[in-house]
Design brief:
Chain A: Keywords: Coiled coil. The structure holds 2 protein chains of 2 kinds. By secondary structure, chain A is mainly alpha-helical. Chain A has helices spanning about 1-5, 15-40, 40-50, 65-70, 100-105, 105-130, 135-175, 185-205, 205-210, 220-235, 240-270, 285-295, 300-310, 315-330, 335-355, 365-370, 395-420, 420-450, 455-475, 475-485, 490-500, 525-530, 540-565, 575-590, 595-605, 605-610, 610-630; strands at about 215, 220. The chains are: A mainly alpha, B alpha/beta. Chains A and B meet through α7, α18, α19, α23 and α24 of A and β1, α1 and β3 of B.
């Protein structure tokens, strides 16, 4: 149409001017039309597209390629993988500016973006540029042609993708059959997942290029394989990362409300020393708490006490919690609201300190011993009891005593109430473990199906490690609280038992004397600290490997080194090992060891239960059960 | 599925018996003696693994030592669950230790049924003169409960190797017969997923050209 209008036959100046106007109008309309077309979904655009170039790029075009079309990228001819740091823990994200990737995901969408960009560019150019209507017309026509071209390419690519996907789907179908899954719904689910993995990898390429690096000289590179699995599970696009996310959100709907409601109560109350056991704190115990409050009103004093007495931070936390903050809170009822916040802050701050410090886990030193021996009938060391314990309590302090007592009973009642709901918690727990198991198995199968190099015994270990790491990292704390709630009764009991052992040493655990190693068990203190770290590790397999197995190996090594120095060999069998483990567990002062054992027992794959992971877990479980009978 | 028989069979053996009957020495003797290098793991004598070859079948044993003290008795199931073999050790000079074995037999049969292969071992035959448990009676008892009786001396290294090899054979036989009778075997265990059709994924098409 423009060509006709611009026929050189038109000579008249006026006519020319009008023509120019008309041409402008036309080009504007075409631009508008292009804009519209570029924005429309392909099908509509294609139907109305007047120009259908057959060759993707027409070098014979009579018109010089305007800059407009040179700048915006053509359709990519090959898909580059997004630059990926192999060791990076960050998931590979799809960069929207990376045309290749976007084109791979959705060619239509990419064409649309490209077209819009071209239209905008041309519009700007036309506004700025003064050029002949002929040139304008040429440019708009060229734009039009390019848009159609892009759309055509997109369509072609989509069709190609469709065919390829079909191919991959039937392949996925074939592979999934090998799993022999009996449940047809499950089979279908796996088929779909596998197909979507294959399609994803076909589009994005990076998993395939990473996969090709997994084997070196026909041997699985374990560290590369671990990175590979982690990268996939943490990626933003991979279907398997979606499976992880779905599982997380399912788990969190159950655990989040519980965590919010109970985590403070459980973590602040069920610890060692445990002050909420039946019966109520004896007058004597309260009096001793009172002394603590009196002797350490300032935080500084506490740190001094800590240094001097080597008291565990948890113990101080509780003492402080009871004396400095909570008691004053209870006394000044009207100020309750404000101080509670403070108390919480205090506890939080202390927890931070916890994390930073190497927690001293040795028992109270003599100076502090008398403070928490509510149940103990051991004779106190006279020399360390300050005189004012026996002196009459000053009237103002009586309030504190009552307040401490009241607080203890209040917390105990709360705990009783929560404990009463354990059946409900157990039910929720079984729902959550169900989700997690299903996801773990599914991911493990898919990894082995989709990536052959991982389909081996070493691959199985790598997959398990990576899957557990990713699956549990975001939900570890919440899950732990749910376990603690379900096991609250046992953990309270354990807290009491651990409290009663604060002052006792290895000789109270009926350990054969030859394993005291000259120091009444203090040589095992580093292992006690080691065990305490179990709560900070989220992956159950990692808990087993780096905590329980390490713990056992540590005991054996410690004893071996001790005797090696004496040029002796004393092999340590279970008869000797178990009592030492009991001693370390009771000294670890973490009642949540019960939950920890349950988490490991629930999620360590059965194949590991025959190995040392299983053995060490069984020993710790036995130690825990034994301690509960004391 | 083919080739499954060529794979290693793993067995868990639990070692039970009163303290001081020589459980630990027995197992250490076995693991030390077969080869010269030390085979025990970082856990030393409490948990040991051993690989052996029985008539061409590869067998991997995980030997779990347990604490023999009375106070831990009730917690035994934590250790012996899922074990395919149990070695119950008594001291031939100590009748009490034989009574303990009887107790263990009862418990294992009750909890694990006939799935577990029981070995009753009279240890310390180097102290034959001080024997308090009659060999014939022990043999008879073992027979009556479907167990096998052995004599050993960890000190003199007598009967140790035979005990473990024989037990391995029995466990292997049990496994093969239960496999044949079609008992379920977990699919998707530690081994690889067996792919029925091993044809490679369809070759990636070359992109480019028209695009």
């Amino acid at each position: 149409m423009i060509q006709t209008l611009l026929s050189p036959d038109q000579q008249n100046v006026t006519q020319r001017l009008e023509l120019a106007k008309l041409a402008n109008l036309c080009s504007e309309r075409i631009v508008n039309f292009c804009e519209l077309q570029a924005a429309l979904p392909l099908k509509n655009g294609m139907v109305e597209s007047p120009a259908k170039p057959t060759s993707p790029i027409s070098p014979q075009s009579p018109l010089s390629t305007p800059e407009t079309t040179r700048r915006p990228a053509h359709f990519p001819t090959s898909l580059q993988s997004p630059s990926l740091e192999r060791r990076s823990s960050k998931s590979p994200s799809v960069d929207m500016s990376d045309g290749a990737v976007l084109a791979a995901v959705d060619p239509i969408k990419y064409a649309k973006i490209l077209n819009q960009r071209m239209v905008e560019h041309l519009k700007k150019r036309l506004e700025k540029m003064e050029c002949s209507p002929q040139r304008r017309a040429n440019m708009t026509q060229e734009l039009f042609r390019k848009i159609s071209e892009n759309n055509e390419k997109a369509k072609l690519m989509q069709e190609q993708q469709r065919r390829r996907q079909q191919q991959l789907k039937s392949y996925a179908d074939k592979r999934t059959r090998a799993l022999n899954l009996k449940d047809p719904a499950k089979k279908k689910e796996h088929e779909e997942w596998l197909a979507s993995i294959l399609i994803h990898d076909d589009k994005f390429k990076w998993p395939l290029s990473l996969k090709s690096q997994l084997k070196h000289e026909n041997k699985l590179d374990v560290s590369a394989a671990n990175d590979f699995c982690t990268t996939i599970l943490r990626s933003t696009t991979h279907p398997m990362s979606d499976i992880v996310k779905t599982c997380h959100s399912k788990v969190k709907t159950v655990t989040d409300p519980l965590h919010e409601k109970y985590s403070t109560l459980v973590s602040d109350a069920v610890l060692v020393p445990y002050l909420y056991s039946e019966p109520l704190l004896s007058d004597e115990a309260v009096a001793k708490l009172e002394v603590l409050a009196d002797s350490s009103p300032e935080e500084n004093t506490f740190s001094t006490v800590e240094e001097n007495c080597n008291v565990s931070v948890d113990e101080i936390k509780l003492a402080k919690y009871m004396t400095d903050k909570e008691i004053s809170k209870l006394i000044n009822d009207d100020k309750a609201g404000d101080t509670q916040g403070d108390a919480q802050q205090e506890v939080d701050a202390q927890q931070e300190v916890d994390a930073q410090q190497e927690v001293a886990v040795s028992s109270f030193d003599d100076e502090m011993d008398y403070l928490f021996d509510s149940e103990d009938d051991e004779v106190l060391n006279d020399k360390v009891v300050p005189d004012d314990v026996t002196s009459p309590v000053v009237p103002g302090k009586l309030n504190n005593l009552a307040a401490a007592d009241e607080l203890a009973s209040k917390i105990r009642n709360e705990l009783d109430e929560v404990e009463g709901q354990s059946a409900a918690f157990k039910k929720q727990l079984s729902t959550v473990t169900g989700y997690l198991h299903e996801t773990m198995h599914c991911l493990s199968r898919l990894f082995r199906l989709a990536y052959e190099p991982l389909n081996s015994e070493e691959g199985y270990d790598v997959i398990n490690t990576a899957v557990q790491e990713c699956l549990f990292s975001d939900i570890g704390d919440q899950l732990q609280i749910l376990y603690r709630l379900a096991n609250l009764k046992k953990e309270r009991k354990m807290a009491e038992i651990m409290t009663s052992f604060i002052e006792k040493d290895i000789s109270h655990m009926q350990v054969n004397e030859k394993w005291y190693l000259d120091t009444r068990g203090e040589c095992y203190n580093h292992l006690v600290s080691h065990l305490r770290r179990i709560t900070a590790i989220h992956s159950p397999l990692e808990k087993a490997l780096s905590c329980t197995v390490r713990l056992h190996a540590g005991v054996v090594e410690t004893a071996e080194a001790f005797y090696a120095a004496k040029h002796k060999q004393e092999p340590m069998g279970a008869d000797d090992l178990l009592p030492i483990i009991c001693y370390i567990v009771v000294k670890s002062q973490i009642p949540q060891i019960i939950s920890q054992c349950n988490i490991m027992a629930d999620f360590i794959p059965p194949e590991y239960m025959m190995e040392q992971e299983g053995y060490c877990l069984s020993t710790v479980q036995t130690a825990v059960e034994y301690l509960l009978t004391l | 599925m083919a080739g499954a028989q060529n794979r290693t069979s793993s067995f868990k053996i639990v070692l039970l018996g009163e303290g001081c009957v020589g459980k630990t020495s027995l197992v250490l003797r076995y693991v030390e003696d077969k080869f010269n290098d030390k085979h025990y793991s970082t856990l030393q004598a409490s948990f040991l693994t051993k690989k052996l070859n029985i008539n061409g079948s590869r067998v991997s044993l995980a030997i779990w030592d347990t604490a023999g003290q009375e106070r831990f008795h009730a917690l035994g199931p934590i250790y012996y669950r899922d074990s395919q073999g149990a070695i119950l050790v008594y001291d031939i000079t100590d009748e009490d230790s034989f009574e303990k074995v009887k107790m263990w037999v009862k418990e294992l049969r009750k909890m694990l049924g006939n799935a577990v292969q029981l070995c009753i071992v009279g240890n310390k035959i180097d102290k034959e003169k001080e024997r308090h448990v009659a060999a014939a009676a022990a043999e008879e008892y073992a027979k009556s409960v479907g167990a096998k009786h052995y004599h050993s001396s960890a000190k003199l290294n007598k009967g140790v190797e035979e005990l473990f090899v024989d037990l391995s054979k029995r466990m292997l036989q049990k496994k093969l017969s239960s496999d044949e009778s079609g008992s379920d075997r977990a699919v998707g265990g530690r081994g690889s997923v067996v792919i029925a059709d091993d044809s490679a994924a369809p070759a990636t098409q070359k992109k480019g050209g028209c695009c």
